[in-house]
Amino acid sequence: MTSLLTFHENPPLSLYIHLPWCVKKCPYCDFNSHEISNSGIDEDAYIDALISDLETELPRIWGRTITSVFIGGGTPSLFSVASINKLMSAIRARLNIHSGIEITLEANPGTAEAEKFIGYREAGINRLSIGVQSFNDKNLKALGRIHDSNEALKAIKLAKEAGFENFNIDLMFALPNQKIKDAIHDLECAVEQGSNHISWYQLTIEPNTVFYYKPPKIPSDDESWSMQDQGQMYLEKNGYKQYEISAYAKDKHAALHNINYWEFGDYLGIGAGAHGKITNVAEGKIERFTRHKIPKRYMELANSESVITETRVLNRDDLPLEFMMNAFRLKEGVEAKNFLERTGLPIKIIEKELQIAVDRKLIEWQLDRLKPTKDGQRYLNELLEMFVK
To answer: Which domain holds residue 113?
Structure first.
């Protein structure tokens, strides 16, 4: 039996909504996404299912305030303005919304339309995350993307014209046959477009993807590290502060939703295959929830607890690793008190491991902050192994 954890208050709470359809599945993608069939998407049925799913979760989060919403996928920008507006109206009617809430929707250039972007903004979306991945047509083709560089630039232009001052550009590096100059050129294009947030992350070959079974030729580890090092210097020179391993932002534009993940906050996940993490202060436990992955089955079960395929209570031995897996992605780390506040455990239980990490120069433990060093983030897996029970 898992012993009780001690919490004094609830952590911040975010809402994640998964819209699982894409025009085409990318060969590197291991997310729960499904290509649109000939029959298309039954948007009304899926939005109704999301609302039913949300309603079944209300007792679990009753009285708590939502600090951010992220609508991800899949390709959420496939959905009509009417569907997104209906969803946002349902959220506002059922949840306590923070006055400064950040509401992000993922959009792909191949599905960008001026009318949609204007409508999304009117529906309450105040931040877009545009999945560009590269401004190089050769690289886009190698990644199996359905858009080209001109469509990427057009999507960004439409977003700005629709009034989105806060938007992220998603880019990848260490792509098949990519050179350092090509990776830097992608960053130059993103900076020129005036984005206040850039997500720049390394292509990794994940199991159960096309690239896993037919691996492309990608840069070596040393080449990838040089690419990342030069890119980080370029971004810093242009006013983008790295605050997480793959996230760079202008002042006051770090993604609130993602920071909540990395600081081990709570998040409610609805939609096919969505994951959630909820702290139960009264019962002294933290639970993780996973929903049905197949959209049709999800829609059939969305108005019942049966929509959840797995519920797992995190035990005391799990928590140090779970916390550090997130916290040490942040360049500035976290306040040491967060460990107690978010895990319900005293930090003394991991003092030995923390001191070893300090001695190996993988973290700094200064005053009340736990902060990974540059080597700590480069060799993150080695650092995290110290907290495996």
So the answer is: 13-260
